[in-house]
Design goal:
The chain has 324 residues and is an alpha/beta fold. It contains 15 helices and 11 strands. α5 (77-87) links the parallel β4 and β5 (94-99). The longest helix has 22 residues, at 302-323.
Length: 324
């Protein structure tokens, strides 16, 4: 196995692919905070194979993001083969296959977590990707479609035989969506049965969460998804082994910088709409946050954003002084 890939992904602290969230700006911030690898939002293999302009935009990244993987989703092995050939020359460090997304518009077409109900097809997709690239091939899965329809314990071996280099396991069934606790016992069973290294994912919102998940499952590395939204500093805590809390100025500067980087590739008509969603994530976990979130959903100009950040700084500094 490629040594750099093993350090960054297999034994790393990875930012999960998050549709609508893990864009270039956020990936850069997470890398700076300590994420050892990042993954793109999921990219349609069919759209790539047809050279869709919109789909190709999702492939854009900056050198500061490396090592970076591209996540492909779809259901036709032929699309994956063509897509893999196209992305292999784009500077990515690995290719990830999405076999875990539970969202209805994805699974109703036979993609994402729906592939867990058709293991031969998933194996054929992995083999097809492997045939077209020298890059490591990873597969992100869930525990199965539902508790009554779990993946077979032989799945990791099947994927290894098909050419996968590593797995990432989200500790829920597709039917769980994102509700309830991750099922660490079931994750541990798959990890122990796997000839491949397994990166574990689900409910990691702190350093303690990460340590508990790794210890309970035996995973080789950890992947952080929704726990990083509004809290990219989680990677600093995980990388250093010491809980990190940003000062008020760092919170405001991080939001401001993310907005500025997004403005380089998001059209002005959509920019403020998107930043509102990010603000709702950042403005959580402190007294007075609800009032600021109500203001955040009305941000429509750069001045609005600066005014909100001024209020945020003021509020955080008051709370900081009260804690002394």
């Amino acid at each position: 196995m490629n040594e750099a890939f093993a350090r960054a992904y297999v034994h790393g602290i990875v930012l999960a692919p998050l549709a609508g969230w893990s864009d270039s700006a956020f990936r850069i911030i997470c890398r700076e905070m300590g994420a050892t690898a990042v993954v793109t939002e999921m990219v349609a293999a069919a759209g790539l194979s047809r050279r869709s302009v919109k789909t190709n935009r999702l492939l854009a990244f900056r050198k500061e993001e490396k090592p970076i993987g591209v996540q492909l989703f779809g259901k036709n092995p032929e699309d994956f083969v063509r897509a893999s050939a196209l992305v292999s020359s784009r500077g990515f460090d690995f290719i990830d296959i999405n076999a875990g997304c539970p969202v209805r518009k994805v699974v109703r077409n036979g993609s994402g977590a729906a592939l867990l109900g058709n293991i031969p097809l998933l194996a054929a997709i992995v083999a097809g990707v492997r045939s077209e690239t020298r890059l490591p091939v990873t597969v992100k899965i869930r525990l199965g479609w539902s508790p009554k329809e779990p993946v077979p314990g032989s799945l990791p071996s099947i994927l290894a035989d098909s050419g996968a280099s590593a797995l990432a396991i989200h500790g829920r069934y597709a039917s769980d969506m994102f509700a309830g606790n991750v099922r660490v016992g079931k994750m541990a069973e798959l990890v122990s049965a796997s000839p491949l290294p397994v990166v574990v994912n689900g409910d990691v919102k702190s350093r303690d969460d990460s340590e508990r998940l790794l210890n309970a499952t035996g995973g080789s590395g950890v992947m952080v998804g929704r726990g990083a939204l509004g809290n990219p500093w989680i990677f600093r805590s995980l990388a250093s082994g010491v809980d990190y809390r940003p000062c008020p100025e760092e919170v405001a500067d991080t939001i401001r910088r993310q907005f500025r980087m997004m403005s380089e590739y998001v059209h002005e008509n959509r920019l403020h709409h998107i930043i509102r969603g990010w603000l709702v994530h950042y403005l959580k976990g402190f007294d007075g946050a609800a009032e600021l979130r109500r203001k955040a959903v009305k941000v429509s100009t750069g001045d609005d954003l600066e005014n909100l950040l001024g209020l945020l700084l003021e509020r955080l500094k008051i709370l900081e002084s009260m804690e002394r």
